[in-house]
Amino acid sequence: MNKKTYTDYDGLPLTISVPEMAVVLGISRAGAYELARSKDFPSIKIGTRIVIPKTQLIEWISRKLTEKEEIIQ
Prior knowledge:
Layout: E1 15-17, H1 18-25, H2 29-36, E2 44-46, E3 49-53, H3 54-72
Antiparallel strand pairs: 1-3, 2-3
Helix pairs in contact: 1-2
């Protein structure tokens, strides 16, 4: 697989694979698969592939930040 470098959200394709998500989030591949299989994470299974829609990933990150801020306050 070719290593891709993403510099902004606009550069991401409409859906990304789990290994691509690992690169984008800066986490391990195993961690990315664990996250993709978690109940509240926005992943879609297409055949044997798991993909993550770009817009839902961004919304999930924003939601997690909001939840964290609410806990801190």
